[in-house]
Structure formats: structure tokens, C-alpha cells
Amino acid sequence: MQTYYFDMKDGIPTRDRTGLEFVTRAGAIEHSRDLARRLRHDPRITDRRLSIVVVDESGAEIHREPVYPAVAKASLS
What is the SS3 string spanning the chain? Predict the structure, then answer.
């Protein structure tokens, strides 16, 4: 098992110092999608650029999940 960290980034990153263990990186990525879905419905979240960044034990970013995917796609246009 490997520890993965789930940082929140909206300009200034908020670091996850605890992390969670997953057997595969696919499990960690799916967890980031679940987090994004939950945050999408949280009325306290106001920044539409918010993303969950999955970082492995070595510190490498392995995935970035936008909390508001439609906003992320629109900003790429």
C-alpha cells in the first residue's frame, strides 16, 4: 500500500499532511473524484477554480480533479 495526499488548490494550495493509503493509484484517483463531488455541493465553497490534487509519497502529482469540471473546461477555451 502507498500513501496518497489530497491537496486542495485554488491558487494557494492547502496541503494534506495526513494522507490515505490505497493499494493502487486508481483507488486514490477515484477517492479524489468522490471528494470533488462532495465539495461541489458544499455551500461554503465559493471558488469555482478549486481542484483536488493527488500527490504520491514521492511528492509527484499524479492527478488533478476539478471540483467544478464545467468551469475548468470553459477556462481552457
Answer: CEEEEEEEECCCEECCCCCEEECCHHHHHHHHHHHHHHHHCCCCCCCCCCEEEEECCCCCEEEEEECCHHHHHHHHC
Q: What per-residue confidence (pLDDT) applies to 13?
A: 80
Q: Is 39 exposed, middle or buried (0-12, 13-18, 19+ CB in 10 A)?
A: middle
Short-list 44, 43, 49, CA closest to 67 = 49
Q: Which amino acid is at 14?
A: T
pLDDT digits (tens, 9 = 90+) for 30-54: 999 999 999 999 998 888 899 999 9
User: What's the pLDDT tens digit per position in 5-19?
Assistant: 999 998 778 999 999
Whether the CB-CB separation of 64 and 54 falls below 8 Å is answered with yes
